[in-house]
Amino acid sequence: MLAASLLTLLAWGGAVAGIFLGQSRKLSSHLAVTGGILLFAIALFLVIPEVATRIGWTLAVMFSVAVCCGLVLLDRWLARGNHSPADVIGPLLAATAVHSLLDGWGVRVLSAQELTSIAVPLGLALHKLPEGLALGLITRRSMSPAGKALLASGAVEGFTVIGALIEPRADQLGATRFGDWWMGIVLAIIAGSFLFVGFHSVAPSRHNSRI
Asked: Is the backbone peptide bond immediately before 49 cis, with ω within 30 degrees of 0?
């Protein structure tokens, strides 16, 4: 819970900076790339192999890649469609809330492993600050007054803590009903979201988008 709370505070700080101060694109880009590469490596070498022990390599790779591709398509629609900030703010906030929920869930799930308990929060921390900055800028362009933009940004980033809170009970219920399949699918979703963060942080569209 501590890691999820700190990540949320970091994202909130980024959102405040984005809303009221603007952002240093060079700094946020470097942080995002570093965090994305770290999370990509975690997904590839730690999480997906763990999924494979539960549901097999074929399904582990298929589910993880499918989640990543779904998030990439959503991101491309938001970034490249001919939409004004007001058009995309609803879907963007919803997508960020789901992503934040997975961040908190993932931190809690992977906290039991010595290596990932350190690497995952570090990678997410490097990712959360640029995410908060970008979200703050977009919500400020789409909402007035600034307090409304701040409330919206803070609410969706708060789903990081909600994900960490619900994880133990949800996994207990899921494991009781579905066995290893439950945790395998959950970890595949987390792996797919980490793969997406890695792709998104280094893809040219990130640097050329209108955000």
From this structure: no
Tens digits of residue pLDDT in 117-173: 889 998 988 888 888 888 888 888 888 788 898 999 999 999 999 999 999 999 999
CB 195 within 8 A of CB 64: yes
Q: What is the pTM of this model?
A: 0.81
Q: How many Å apart are CA 172 and CA 159, to the nearest integer? A: 20
Q: Is 155:74 a contact under the CB 8 Å cutoff?
A: no
> Measuring CA to CA, which residue among 33, 69, 13, 25 is closest to residue 211?
25
52-88 tens-digit pLDDT: 999 999 999 999 999 999 988 888 877 665 555 566 6
Tokens of 125: 């921390």
Domain locations along the chain? 2-208
